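Minutes, project check-in
Item: structure for the 180-residue chain
Input as provided by the requester:
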Amino acid sequence: MTGGRFTKVAFTCRFINNSGKRPLPDRKETMEKKVSDFSLPCTGDKTFQLSAIKDKFLVLYFYPKDNTPGCTTESIQFRDLHPQFHKLGGAVYGISRDSLKSHENFKAKHGFPFDLLADTDETACTLFGVIKMKNMYGKQVRGIERSTFVLDRHGAILREWRGVKVPGHVQEVLDFVQSL
């Protein structure tokens, strides 16, 4: 306190658990964040509209590029656990900046039961703040930081994971959804 006034200080806490991973804030702290409505073209000649989603929850996973090793592994894990997400009343969508044609090929090649959204103009990437500067072969490039978000049916973020490492991630998302 200086001169009879209080100074407001804002800060962010990051907690590290025993596994060395940085979990995000408690669900109560993230529920306040509501995502603006958006629409994107998606596989199957459809259009995704956030406000039209009526499922109990929505999993949106952002990945850098179709048919790359990490992105393929992550998407296959979402494919393999998709029946469990569906049984719990949720929907899963993958999002990258790839073209719709690339998405269609990627989906067909691996038999994904969920749609992929083409964010070629970075609409959703910007809303979720997943575009980051990355090092690729010694050069700085703009790219998607692998991230996953679980939203409720009203578009409020229930939980987010940023800077995702693929091994065990999809199971962690499923575990969270089962706790809802």
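Outcome recorded: The longest strand covers residues 90-96.
No further action items on this chain.
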